[in-house]
């Protein structure tokens, strides 16, 4: 029983660290997110923090996974209604947390190395996004919501790639409206009618 209680406490502390780290990075930015700063915010030593994670890269990967979980929880109730509108809402929210966007883009680039701790996370994430778009758009086709000639698998891949690329460009030029650019692309592909407003 003591072991079970200790394990549960460890899981709870890990979640507390991730929630605190998300707040720190969103507030201070990626550059203010050294292991020392994150450990201080969590009330731990650097060694104490790394007791819960094997490395800084594993910690940052877990932070991004936690961010995705929170986004899913936030927008879950709307996802079956209009997946593209929800996707644009997430992109608008990302513009409010540049530190997390920088963490995502840096780790995404580093994860091209198959040995990197984040490689599996990004591969799973890409597959998950593709499966989500495939399922929802195929349902939309049957309901007459989307054109029947849309290549669903390609659409999911392209939208994900465009979003990732725009986030990199946005870090260099914050005047770019990422959500609006993606909306224009969706309109041109015929899967997001131009009379819809995403600002409502």
CATH fold-level label of the largest domain: Tetracycline Repressor, domain 2
Q: How many helices in DSSP terms?
A: 9
Order of helices and strands: HHHHHHHHH
What would CATH call the architecture of the largest domain?
Answer: Orthogonal Bundle
- Write down the domain tally: 2
**What low-confidence regions span 5 or more consecutive residues with pLDDT below 50?**
196-200
Major sheet, described briefly? none
Keywords: DNA-binding
Pfam families: TetR_N
GO molecular function: DNA-binding transcription factor activity; transcription cis-regulatory region binding
Organism: Oerskovia enterophila
Write the layout of secondary structure elements.
Layout: H1 2-28, H2 35-41, H3 46-50, H4 56-79, H5 83-94, H6 98-110, H7 119-142, H8 152-172, H9 178-188
Helix pairs in contact: 1-2, 1-4, 1-6, 4-5, 4-6, 5-9, 6-8, 7-8, 8-9
Q: Any descriptors?
A:
single chain, 200 residues, mainly alpha, Arc Repressor Mutant, subunit A, Tetracycline Repressor, domain 2, 2 domains, 9 helices, elongated, HTH-type_TetR-like_transc_reg
Kindly describe this structure.
The chain has 2 domains: 1-52, Arc Repressor Mutant, subunit A; 55-200, Tetracycline Repressor, domain 2, CATH 1.10.357.10. It has 200 residues and is mainly alpha-helical. Helix 5 (83-94) runs antiparallel to helix 9 (178-188). It has helices spanning 2-28, 35-41, 46-50, 56-79, 83-94, 98-110, 119-142, 152-172, 178-188.
